[in-house]
């Protein structure tokens, strides 16, 4: 398994994004995540986008982007996780955990001080992954879905404590 950075508009990223949107629609009964995203948001040093490959086959994805919009509840130093997804047949292999660790390391190297993410109550496996990786519920919700009842916002410090 190899994890490689790609542009968010790479054909494999676009194909996996379509699948994650279908997953959101199936779970939440809507049109998927309407957060506006563009490839530039994931371009270093303001972010990165990763795909896990088994040979040439893309199996999992995830990215982070700089996000400091105070009006939406973000803070200076935040790196927001977006589009974490693993194909159904590749789940249970630790791919999401590996991508998450790589995103955290990259964001830390870019000078980010906190990882933030928004997920929902209908994604219990995501909530479990993040909690077991050191993420905690945010004191104050952030992002596009911050007013939604089933939205869950989580954070993790990237700053080493002495």
Q: How would you describe what is shown here?
A:
The structure is a single chain. The chain has 162 residues and is of the alpha+beta class. 26% of the residues lie in helices and 29% in strands. The chain is built from 3 helices and 7 strands; from the N terminus they run βαβββαβαββ. It has helices at 11-28, 95-109, 124-132, and strands at 2-5, 47-54, 57-66, 78-86, 114-120, 136-137, 151-157. Strand 2 (47-54) and strand 3 (57-66) form a beta hairpin.
What is shown here, in short?
The protein has 162 residues and is α+β, with helices and mostly antiparallel strands. Helix content is 26%, strand content 29%.
Mean pLDDT across the residues is: 93
Distance between the termini: 34 Å
Which structural category do the helix and sheet elements fall into?
alpha+beta
Number of helices: 3
* β-sheet strand percentage: 25-35%
- C-alpha Rg, in Å? 15 Å
**What is the general shape?**
globular
Number of strands: 7
Features:
alpha+beta, single chain, 162 residues, 3 helices, globular, 26% helix
Summarize the helices and strands and which ones pair or pack:
Elements: E1 2-5, H1 11-28, E2 47-54, E3 57-66, E4 78-86, H2 95-109, E5 114-120, H3 124-132, E6 136-137, E7 151-157
Parallel strand pairs: 4-5
Antiparallel strand pairs: 1-2, 2-3, 3-4, 5-7, 6-7
